[in-house]
Amino acid sequence: MANGVLVLGATSTIARALSARWARDGVPLHLVGRDTPELERIAQDLRIRYGSDVSVLGCDIAAGDFPQATVTAMGQHAPLRGIVWAFGTMVAAAGAADAQSLRAGAWVNFGAAPPLIEALLPLVDRQGFIAFLSSVAGDRGRQSNYVYGAAKAALSVYGLGLRHRLRGAGPSVTVLKLGVVDTRMSWGMGVPGGAADPEAVAAEVQRAIGAGKAVAYVPRRWALVMAVIRHLPEPLFNLLRI
Ligand SMILES: NC(=O)c1ccc[n+]([C@@H]2O[C@H](COP(=O)([O-])OP(=O)(O)OC[C@H]3O[C@@H](n4cnc5c(N)ncnc54)[C@H](OP(=O)(O)O)[C@@H]3O)[C@@H](O)[C@H]2O)c1
How confident is the model over 179-194, as pLDDT tens digits? Predict the structure, then answer.
């Protein structure tokens, strides 16, 4: 089934909401993740609800051969309409995390992306898209989550570099800088104004991709919040417990 969207990290709450939107629009989907039984459940739900064309592919991004195995499996579905990178994991503040979880956090949030995306690139339609679910956490290092933030900053720069390289000659690349969204990842995180609804976030993400944006803050108010945080002088920044 050509012309589908490849969803990497398809068990993510936000990715599920995005997949449902594409499924409703009749777009074929290829759901990728490490939890194959859960992917099968999501796929079956989409088939029943929307009559969708959905395939499932188990992929452990910690395994050494993951890019080639995924690329080979996806080759039969080329050309792809697009790819969404939704893999991600919250990492405890550096002082509280052991070396293994720091390494895993850096890998899942960024390290695994370049080898997989570069290998999949030839399978994506020239008119298609690649979208990265990144985070406002990458905009300025903060004591509470700078390991996660550093990896997301790297993911954002990678996405924008890829966009620069492919301009005019390949798929459009969009970096989504998400604020706090109401998913298991943000569970227990207090945020003024509350965590955003994943369905509303998915709608905005889909719009930003469709418009071919380079970067989109979702929800939009986070653009203003982060502009303030980025420009705060250090003495003021140091007063914040964030
Ligand atoms: N929620 C927020 O507030 C927020 C804010 C900014 C950015 N984001 C980003 O948006 C994306 C989706 O987030 P979400 O909130 O929907 O998160 P989520 O529901 O926790 O989903 C995270 C995804 O990453 C996968 N994953 C996590 N650790 C993994 C590992 N070690 N190996 C392989 N896969 C792993 C999960 O697979 P399993 O289901 O198998 O665990 C799941 O598919 C992430 O990239 C996240 O960083 C989220």
Answer: 999 999 988 777 777 8
Ligand 1, residue 62: give the atom nearest the CA: 32
- The pLDDT of residue 94: 64
Per-residue pLDDT tens for 148-178? 999 999 999 999 999 999 999 999 999 999 9
Q: Please, where are the H alpha helices in the chain?
A: 13-24, 36-50, 66-75, 99-106, 113-120, 146-166, 198-210, 221-231, 234-237
**Residue 136, CB-side half-sphere exposure with 13 Å CA sphere:** 20
Ligand 1 residue neighbourhood (C-beta within 6 Å):
9, 11-14, 33-35, 61-62, 86-89, 104, 108, 133, 135, 178, 180-181, 183-186
Residues 117, 159: contact at Cβ < 8 Å?
no
For 5-237, CATH number out of 3.40.640.10, 3.40.50.300, 3.40.50.720, 1.10.260.40 equals 3.40.50.720
Q: For residue 8, give the H/E element and its range.
A: strand 5-8
Q: How many CB atoms lie within 10 A of CB 32?
A: 29
Decide: helix, strand or coil at residue 111. Answer: helix
3-class DSSP state for residue 193? Answer: coil
Q: What mean pLDDT comes out for the span 12-22?
A: 98
Are 132 and 175 spatial neighbours (Cβ–Cβ below 8 Å)?
yes
Q: Are 177 and 218 in contact (CB under 8 A)?
A: yes
Please report how the helices 113-120 and 146-166 are oriented relative to each other, as an axis angle in degrees rounded to 10. Answer: 20
